[in-house]
Amino acid sequence: MRTDSSPGTLPAREHLPAGDAGTPVLDVVIPVYNEEKDLQPCVLRLHEHLKRTFPYAFRITIADNASTDTTPQVSQRLEARIPEVRAFRLEQKGRGRALRTVWSASDAPVLAYMDVDLSTDLNALLPLVAPLISGHSDLAIGSRLSRSSRVVRGPKREFISRSYNLILRGSLQARFSDAQCGFKAIRREVAQVLLPLVEDTGWFFDTEMLVLAERAGLRIHEVPVDWVDDPDSTVHIVRTATDDLKGVWRVGKALATGSLPLDRLARPFGDDPRDREIKDVPKGLARQLVGFCVVGGLSTLFYLLLYSGFRQFTGSQVANALALLVSAVANTAANRRLTFGVRGRGGAIRHQAQGLVVFGIGLALTSGSLAALNAATANPARSTELAVLIAANLAATVLRFLLFRVWVFPDRTEEPSTVVAQHIPTYATPQPPLPQRPAPHFRAGDAADHTWRDATMRLQPVRPSDTDLGDSR
């Protein structure tokens, strides 16, 4: 949970207005490569479905990434025939490259894409984009692995898909269920900031985008879909799986080293309901309790191991004091960083000193419990000693949390008046608005007048890596 008062890069999510009839709210991109047979039936079916069911203006963009058959000509005919269809061509392969280029230049507030084979039932399209239109979510994905999804595909693809998502959960701690389903949508303001951080230009593009969005705290909505496998799919499974694993390693390394500027994707303070001040509900209490319990459980195990080791060559009181001292130092350091979110070395010595005072209280409780046990029984069993110490530590733990929260790591959030005063000079000198550039218009032109290449050159690559001709996908 953020506690800063500075606005994030992304604006607060709002419900999108219906707008003018000619302004598309949704831009559905269909990336294609050598799909001369399936392209026209796909576009006609999608257009008919949107005309019949979608309540907003829409656009269908055909993103042809370096097809070598008659796909460009089919795209031109569809663009000339249907007003809502636009054709765009890249001279380089790569599904991720095509999506990033077209999405980055689109003027629609909601951007989506789907595979040309229409394996996903189109009835899921409106539920996919509705949370983005309403302002509820930042991204939306179709999931074939949801319990209510109905999927028809062979055991080989089923095994690969589930194994890949298990790898993502285990290595990148991903919580979304299906990274590879070709049925996704994103709000434009999110895409403008998120896409420059995504490096992959091929099939791993989806996964990288979702992992970064999730790590940045964006909301990802999942829609159960009905999905039928395309037996004529041209995806090279082995090569794609190898490239995906390389991408997992690259993204995992970048996340571990902190080299990704995910703070660019932060929402302004107050957009998250957890930022609100609620009467009689201490701020951050639930999260701190969970973190303190986890640290406390691990500290208790650490303490018991230390006590059992020290008890082999010393008395119970000395073993208890040594074990509690070592575990208390580790407990204070862990709670400082993980539970109360204190960063840096500033105040670390003072915090440890205060933690030792709390340790003294815990020592008094546990030592007093041992003294009472020894007074009641001359030679208590080792298991009885451990049971008494566990009970005493539980009581000391509750007191420790209260002292940590109120005394050692108190919440020193700045008063709102201070924040307002800091922003007064900004409002006193308003800046002139930036000039608005007209939205790009994707027209592929006619092959007969040689405008294909000119139309392609109007859109420049988003990243320097997009000029790499070595991408084989």
TrEMBL record:
CDD domains: DPG_synthase (cd04188). Gene3D superfamilies: Spore Coat Polysaccharide Biosynthesis Protein SpsA, Chain A. Its EC number is 2.4.1.117. Pathway: Protein modification; protein glycosylation. GO terms for biological process: polysaccharide biosynthetic process; protein N-linked glycosylation. Residues 28-192 form the Glycosyltransferase 2-like domain. Keywords: Endoplasmic reticulum, Glycosyltransferase, Membrane, Signal-anchor, Transferase, Transmembrane, Transmembrane helix. It is found in: Endoplasmic reticulum membrane; Membrane. InterPro entries: DPG_synthase, Glyco_trans_2-like, GtrA_DPMS_TM, Nucleotide-diphossugar_trans. Residues 426-473 are annotated as: Disordered. It comes from the Bacteria. Its main location: endoplasmic reticulum. One of its GO terms (cellular component) is membrane. The chain crosses the membrane at residues 289-310, 355-374, 386-408. One of its GO terms (molecular function) is dolichyl-phosphate beta-glucosyltransferase activity. The keyword Glycosyltransferase applies. It is a single-pass membrane protein; Multi-pass membrane protein. The keyword Transferase applies. Residues 292-409 form the GtrA/DPMS transmembrane domain. It catalyses: a di-trans,poly-cis-dolichyl phosphate + UDP-alpha-D-glucose = a di-trans,poly-cis-dolichyl beta-D-glucosyl phosphate + UDP. Signal peptide: none annotated. It is an enzyme of class 2 (transferase). Residues 443-456 have a biased composition (Basic and acidic residues). Belongs to the glycosyltransferase 2 family. This is dolichyl-phosphate beta-glucosyltransferase. It comes from Streptomyces cupreus.
